[in-house]
Write a structure and sequence with these properties.
Layout: H1 16-38, H2 43-50, H3 54-82, H4 84-104, H5 111-122, H6 125-136, H7 142-193, H8 202-210, H9 214-222, H10 224-255, H11 259-284, H12 290-310, H13 315-331, H14 333-343, H15 349-376, H16 381-406
Length: 407
């Protein structure tokens, strides 16, 4: 898609069709993140009903995330072969069925195969969503498109705990999961109705159909820029998971921060990240090199985290510093996705985005082990140092991407 030439100095306006695409894909991504937290939000009720431990319930989610992570790259291949719309609709359909089956599970052990099904459904969103955005939205607006995609996911995460808790009070945990499935099926219906607005990357499909060589199909993921992008996501996930999953525990062990205040600080980080995404999308579309935005944002966030680790700040400055770190990190997200798009060979966006985003799952699997060891050995300050260090190391991958892409 391209815009008609505009007079010098006049900025292109956001057309209605691009807004529709962003809304549909942002909604789809929001539902995928919403579904990720519907079951964990009900863990206390499932624990009592099934008489199991939190470790056993956590194992259910491990099956889900491992399945999703392993299948993101194959889902990307499928996107490039049969089209992103079909893969997105099919994956969301499986996901909705999985959420519904959670609520019908007759025993705890049945949750494991259902988690496998839900993980298959979750694996399609990143490769399908980004392929559709790349093909549907004018490239001068891709920063805002990527930002709206991330924002939708963040809002989905934020919505799940309160909605599931409220629904469970009225309907029980099984009824709450049925309600979540209904919301998912309603989203699926909206995507079906709006599917004509979601363009396909015809270069991907023609390329996939014209080559039967596995080596040729794998070549885009084996290119050095794409491998470095994978490293970017792996490092970033370690830093983010350390904060998102362990910040209240870390602040309590490090500074004796009350749980209520530590939770406010975590909320500040998440809300700051969402605000940063919105501003970051606008800034990314202004023509500023995305690498500079990422380096500035992540290094600044790292400095703020180190300040919190080193000094026992009063409540307001501490929350402000952590929220600002979230904002700065979030502002890099649209530029990050532009870097991946630039590294992806033409006609391979589905498989490339699927592959590099599996780095998030890999980092998410490693981080809890590392943070758990630090907390168990009485080194809570090193949790924030770990996050800061991984943010800083991530900026080195940006430099590496630029170097290898220029070769």
């Amino acid at each position: 898609m391209t815009d008609l030439a505009l007079p010098a100095g006049q900025k292109p306006q956001l057309p209605f069709r691009d807004m529709q695409v962003m809304a549909l894909i942002g909604l789809a991504h929001g539902i995928s993140h919403f579904f990720q937290l519907v079951l964990p939000s009900l863990f206390p009720l499932l624990k009592d009903d099934f008489q199991v431990s939190y470790t056993q319930l956590g194992a259910v989610m491990t099956v889900f995330y491992v399945t999703s992570g392993l299948l993101q790259t194959p889902a990307g291949f499928l996107v490039d072969r049969i089209g992103a719309r079909n893969v997105l609709l099919g994956g969301l359909s499986l996901y909705c069925v999985g959420i519904l089956l959670y609520g019908l599970a007759p025993s705890f052990w049945m949750l494991f195969p259902i988690a496998l099904l839900a993980g298959i459904g979750n694996s399609v969103f990143h490769p399908a969503d980004y392929s559709i955005l790349n093909a549907s939205v004018n490239q001068t607006r891709l920063g805002r498109a990527y930002g709206s995609h991330t924002l939708g996911g963040n809002l989905g995460w934020a919505l799940a705990p309160p909605l599931m808790a409220g629904a469970a009070l009225l309907l029980g945990w099984r009824g709450a999961l049925a309600l979540a499935a209904v919301i998912g099926f309603a989203t699926l219906a909206l995507l079906v109705l709006g599917r004509d607005r979601l363009a396909e990357d015809v270069r991907s499909q023609s390329r996939a159909q014209s080559t039967g060589s596995d080596k040729a199909s794998l070549a885009p993921m084996l290119s050095l820029p794409v491998l470095v992008c994978f490293g970017y996501f792996l490092l970033l996930a370690i830093g983010l998971v350390a904060i998102q999953n362990f910040l209240p525990t870390t602040l309590d062990a490090l500074h004796g921060t009350p749980l209520s205040l530590a939770t406010i600080a975590l909320t500040g980080f998440l809300l700051g990240a969402s605000a940063g995404v919105m501003l970051g999308g606008v800034v990314a579309d202004r023509g500023i090199p995305p690498g500079k935005i990422v380096v500035f944002g992540l290094l600044s966030a790292a400095v703020l985290l180190l300040l919190v680790a080193r000094f026992d700040l009063p409540a307001v400055p501490m929350v402000a510093a952590i929220a600002a770190a979230g904002f700065l990190q979030g502002s890099t997200t649209p530029s990050r996705d532009l870097i991946v798009r630039a590294a992806a060979p033409k006609g391979a966006s589905g498989r490339v985005f699927g592959f590099v985003y599996s780095g998030l799952d890999a980092g998410s699997a490693l981080a809890p082990l590392a943070v758990g060891l630090l907390l168990d050995h009485g080194a809570p300050q090193h949790v924030l140092v770990l996050s800061a260090a991984t943010f800083a190391l991530t900026t080195l991958t940006v430099y590496g991407i630029r170097r290898v892409s220029a070769q």
